Amino acid sequence: MKTLTEGIILKEQNIGEKDKLITALTAEKGLIRGFAKGAKNIKSQNSAGTQLFSYSRLCLIESKGRDTYIISEAKSKEMFFGLRKNIENMCLAQYFSELLMTLLVEGEKSPSALSLILNSLYILANEKRPPLLVKACFEMRLLGICGYMPDLTMCSVCGEYDRETFFFIPHTGTLCCSHCSSQDSLPKSIALDRSVTTALRHTIYAEEKKLFSFLLGDSSLETLNKATEEYVSNQTDRHYKTLDFYKAMRC
């Protein structure tokens, strides 16, 4: 059975001298793995369409008794060439791929996740927003899509919405205001001023088309990213080597 779909290549692995095993997030089949015969050869018509971060038109053929597909055709629609001009952004995109491959269930459609990665790569490739802003939005929105939705609407103790300082608790995904507690009594929390609290809420509750439509200063962006990274780490209970590599490239 053949399926025509569009998808973003999240991982490519050379198999033998000529073939590739790719992982892609597709519109029709969700997260899939597939063999592309001969695609390692740059002269192959499927070479470009199976490259990392190529958004491609794919023809998938189901393999009987296997959980992988045969990719009989791969035509690139968008290559995000701008990513390859900046090693930091390329590393960040690989971190996004690792998050997707970790959190998504293979074979289940996720149009929201597909839209999120495409928009994120477009912004990175064209340098529309600071990379740390894109990273924070991607992390929090993806976790929300995958069932790890935090509750950032108000203080979890008194119900207050607006305070000068909130403490974000990554383990629970909740906020505690400065009137109800302090960082001494919440040692694993992260202090957020009003602007960072607003930004963190935005990453979760903003409309999709407005997700990246805010700006923060460098110091505030660093605090925001500390909060989002800790939330990812606590909720997924996993260490991400691609994140380590991205941080190394930023130094």
Could you characterize the architecture of this molecule?
The protein is α+β, with helices and mostly antiparallel strands and 251 residues long. 35% of the residues lie in helices and 26% in strands. A hairpin with a 6-residue loop joins strand 4 (55-62) and strand 5 (69-78). The protein is elongated, with a radius of gyration of 20 Å. The mean pLDDT is 94.
> Rg to the nearest angstrom?
20 Å
What's the arrangement of strands in the largest beta sheet?
1-2-3-5-4
E-strand count: 9
How many helices?
Answer: 6
Q: Shape, please?
A: elongated
> Poorly predicted ranges (pLDDT <50, ≥5 residues)?
none
Q: Which class do the helix and strand fractions yield?
A: alpha+beta
Oligomer state equals single chain
Give the biggest beta sheet.
Answer: 5 strands, mixed, barrel
Beta-strand share of residues: 25-35%
How much helix, percentage-wise, in residues?
25-40%
